[in-house]
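Hey, can you fold this one?
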Amino acid sequence: MSTELFVRGMLYLSLTVVGVPGNIAVILAFLLLLYQENRLLPADVIVLHLACVNLLVVGVRCLLETLESFYLTRVFGDIGCKAIIFVYRTSRSLSIWLTFVLSAYQCLSIAPPGSRWASARALVAQNLWVVFFFLWLVNTCMSSAAILFSFGTKNDSSLVNHGINVQFCYVFFPSKLSKQANGAGQVGRDVVPMTLMTLASLIILVFLYKHSRQVKGLRSSSSSGGGGGGGGSSGAEQRAAKAVVALVTLYVVMYGVDNGLWVYTLTVKKTLKSSLMSDLRIFFSSLYAALSPLVIIASNRKVNGRLRCVALEKPVQEKATSLSTM
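Sure. Predicted structure:
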């Protein structure tokens, strides 16, 4: 095994070890919450959907890349490359758009009751399945090029000018125009939600700043008047807003690097002999899918609480079993 393949395999292995258990833990926590309370809030449904999509990103791409790098399996034939790249691109773009939906919904949640934005939030909550269906439909269609142009074997006649080297797979485009059009479509698909979610996060940050100043003013007036400070009723909303801002920041950094490398790949006239650029792109975009569950677990009290309950119940059950056998 070459040093390049070993390093490559270890990087993807690190993403797999962190991302797969992390996303599974988030999914199980929400399923446990659903079992206990018989319902999930719209924001919880969005986060659950996001965790499922991120699990697809890490499981389908990073896990299989790890196994292939260490020669543990061979799945990157023509059919394997078409399926894996298609599923990866679809789930990757869904992860982006679901992060935007989460930030937009959280932005609407801070609107005052009775306002038009509050009505818009209620409308989104009632028709969340329509939003999910629309996102799946659009992103599946936009990723269909992977089925047409992905192959597991080299083709020298196409490789010279219009191909993209993805280590075990090659994406061949029939012309320079088709390559640039497909690339521009992918960049646009990322930049639009990135811009919108950044705007939503700025609105949330401005709201949190104004709210903190109001709370300080109330506390100072209460202390001078001998009363007690309030402002604890919106603590859950503020924690959720901060978690969303953290997710969006993580997204913008990771996918910003990813898209910068993708634009560079599109500007290269001939196909790169090395897959380094593609590997870096996949690594940074998958890094969001691997690290986002850690942010969710750390900031979401519902997820954190359920996981702690499960962790505490296991030793109690083991202790009870050992006492019963004595």
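The chain has eleven helices and three strands. Let me know if you want another pass with a different chain boundary.
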